[in-house]
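#onboarding

Welcome to the new folks! Below is a worked example of what a typical request in this channel looks like: someone posts a single protein sequence, and someone else replies with the predicted structure as tokens. Don't worry about understanding the tokens yet, we'll cover that in week two.

Example request:
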Amino acid sequence: MLRNFLKKRQTRFGLILIGLFLAAGFLGPHLCPWQPDAVDEAHLLAPPSRGHWMGTDQLGRDVLSRLMAGARISLVIGFVVVLIATAVGVFIGATAGYFGGALDAVLMRFVDVALCFPVTFLILSVIAVLEPSVTNIILILGLTGWMGQARLVRAEVLSLKNREFVLLARSYGASHGRIILRHLVPNAAGPVIVAAVFGVAAAILAEAGLSFLGLGIQPPTPSWGNMLADARSTLGVAWWQSLFPGTAIFAILIALNALGESARASLIHDPSTPFGRSGRRPLGEKGAPR
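Example response:
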């Protein structure tokens, strides 16, 4: 599966782009000659030049330096949000699917109620009450994005829990927790990984939208969203101020969606798979790879 995944051109394209953004986010601020929040009154709204490769904003701050610092924030928020949402969704979905009965009904009705709330307005309401910060944004986005993962994992566990390898583990006296963690969750990991990759893109876009509205990362801390918000007032005279952060958001979303589509084809819809969607026998069945 990994070989099929890595040999796809979509995978290589997405990994190269994401690698560039990771390098820019975590190494760029140490290599750039300008601090992201350094004000240069002599170069207000300066166009791209040798000294400022992507120009400056209305306060004379270097756009390239702020773009790199914003990349670190956006990527950290995207990946941590998905980790939180996936952990909560896998726990609730696996528990509901494995035990079934009244517990399944209660947990799924809770998921249905959570899905009834408009997520965007819920996030805006919570952020309006709490102080906008990186930690609060991560917690809010993570705790409002797990419902789809929970339903996905529940469906996978329902299709797997009566398979022979699960019945064999149960007959050997394996505990419920061991069956869920060692047998069911690993065999349901394919769709979860695909959903997580797409979830990173959604989290980055949500953070950029909140910052654009002034409810996300607060100035002077740079993020792609508040850079676009700052560029609204100078859109007609400083095209570079909105072009580069907008292009960065577009590029990272394209890269993550390319990885997601490639993972979907490799883990779920591979037509060459002889033993099911994942291309192998479930972990625990006779003949499964160790």
